[in-house]
Amino acid sequence: MVLKQSSFQSHSPFLSPINPNINPMKKTHLVKNNSNHNITIQKIATKTKPSSSNTTTIKLKNKNKSKHPKPISVSQENLQIPQINTTLLTFLNKNPILTQDFYQIDALDLAPRLLGKFLRRDDVVLQITEVEAYRPNDSACHGRFGKTARTAPVFGPGGHVYVYLCYGLHMMLNVVADKDGVGAAVLIRSCAPISGLGTIQQRRGLKTEKPTLLAGPGKVGQALGLSTEWSSHALYTAGGLELLDGPEPEHILVGPRVGIEYASPEHVNALWRFAIAGSSWISAPKKTLRPL
Asked: Which Pfam families does the annotation name (predicted)?
């Protein structure tokens, strides 16, 4: 089975990864009721390694504000409409914030483990689809020249964030790996939108639902509204930017990292780039990736 991404519902609660046979761009069925809501219902079959189940994604759009809204009825679909706070609680219970010890391993081991996990800030939830590992004594790693004011976060304990400005334009999000003082991180290259599509599009200045929205590291940083001030932020604490547990992909692609021609041949050719096989949310070049 190949892990695909969920439909886009910018005002929805949280969604499950989509069945590979379902087109994420396909419009969902709209059911009208007697209340001041439209209810978008799409049945999604999910399958992850731990378990498989059928879930239902429901999107509520308020037309008019009311202090006493009428109860929603969709008996014709035989579905129960969850409240948003209940759905959020269910999502957080199923996908809790990862603890600090999750990150304190070699960056090359952490990188593929980040695939399928969720980045959350406010109403925006992204699922990680592509990453690159950067290790100690790596001629492509920012820590190769030692600790500086800019790279100090890379040498912090695993589980923190390292954000740097690339070409004066792009905010690049990295997850610090390994123990304090090691100097290793994993670059988040691409993600798929799970929630908060409207906010993502606004931050990106791009109204699209195509992979170009988030397929690239600078696009991820922009979609999350990050700046270099986020460096050293702890992903394992509630609030701000969080990293939540998520389904492990069945199949992974590997290849050499992108844009590191300045590094030694050994590191230029190292297969330290990882992506979810079958996902459309992968940055270029794709032809250098192959099954793990």
From this structure: Pur_DNA_glyco
